[in-house]
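Human: If only I could read backbone structure tokens as easily as an amino acid sequence. Take your time, and here it is.
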Amino acid sequence: MLANRHRGLVRIHGLVLLLGLGVFFWLYAEFIMRYVPAVKLSREVNLLQYFLCLVIGLLVGGSRLRAVGTRLTRLSITEAAGLASQQVGLVALAVFSMMFATQDRSISRLFLGSFLVWSWLGIFWLHRRLPVRLARFLYGHGEQIPTLFVGRARTLAMLDEWLKQRLHLGVHPVGFLALDALAPAAPATIPVTGTVADLPRVLAEKTIGQVILLEVPAEPTVARLIVDQCQAQGCRLLVHHQVEEVLGHPVVSADEGGHHFFTLHDEPLEEPLNRAVKRAFDIVVALPVVVLVLPPLMLVVWLVQRFQSPGPLFHVRARSGEGRAEFPMLKFRSMHLAPPDATAESRQASVDDDRVYPLARFLRRHSLDEFPQFWNVLTGEMSIVGPRPVMPVLDAEFERQVRSYRSKHWVRPGITGLAQSEGFRGEIRTPEQLQERIRLDLYYIAHWSIWLDVQITLKTFWQVFFPPKSAY
């Protein structure tokens, strides 16, 4: 029931956004035509096709609204701004695609641009204010659900934070029944009404709309009693699973062939369509770089190397890719030539490393030495965004330090990644730095979206010109 209530809140919020922006589109167009002659918008312009593009963009953007999950009523300023940017970005893509496809020269670009700016401000404000007000209207006093909690005494302390996140859906706590004999003092919002043996009495005396079982009882007879009593009294039953607590790791649920499973990570890139979208993004970004940027950059680097550090243009070394399959990764050579030495090869570059020749310091700091890897992207060995690959000898060392390290090999490695865009570049000096890099890599794998790839790419592009202090 709670999931359906939240789903309804998201849908109504999206519908209000659609209606509000649709009405604003026509009112704003009328205002411009009547009172702002400086903007060349005539009544002969076919605004209907752009209105339909607005509707399509918002409908497609509805998936981004659903993705925020139960945080809809608690969006931070940054989250609300990001969500508004994604939705307005989709609207802009649809609108300008229509304009270019029809070669429409009659529509005012100033009108469209200013409309999108005002729309972003309006959507941002609605994301911050509307969900809470909608929840109060939809699930106020008349729609509250008297809720009884059942669990062990130690779980009682965890209820306060959970309730704060669910009160907007109309959850009204009326009592707590302990599965164990001890019933400790309860928070002021949740009175202790006894133990599970008192369930028949409590359900008979109080108007309970929902029972939330915080854990599955060890005794099957107790579990059966709870189910039977809830069915007999017409109460909804919501059962919380304890898999995460037992495993000590967050899990994702999945239904496969009528059986219910839990896994440690979600993997959006296991869906073929998502993989195709990511591959298309890789090609669209990498192809212009390989054709237009890489050739002149190669010439400049080669000429400077002739004077500062003669030797091969590229540094080609094996790296572990998707499924731990090795591939030859390309880089501009940024260090002086030296006799083969596995120990020296595995040494990470550090600040003022004497192995780096002068121009290479600039190349490394601005990530220009990584540009040959766009060829690895075109050949399918790498992606624009993904976990950064390291030397095989470091792979083995990091696997010993971080338990979940090998999970980064579920996807193709990237020229850049979420960790790099967050400033984790250069030498890994402490176990904490390694742990954080892997945490961000696994977060990326579990939460991949094309918009996340776009954000990381843009942030990395910015760092090419304004590199963080960790780049050297």
About this structure: The chain has a mean pLDDT of 82. Residues 271-465 form one domain. The longest strand covers residues 171-178. The first helix runs from residue 2 to 35.
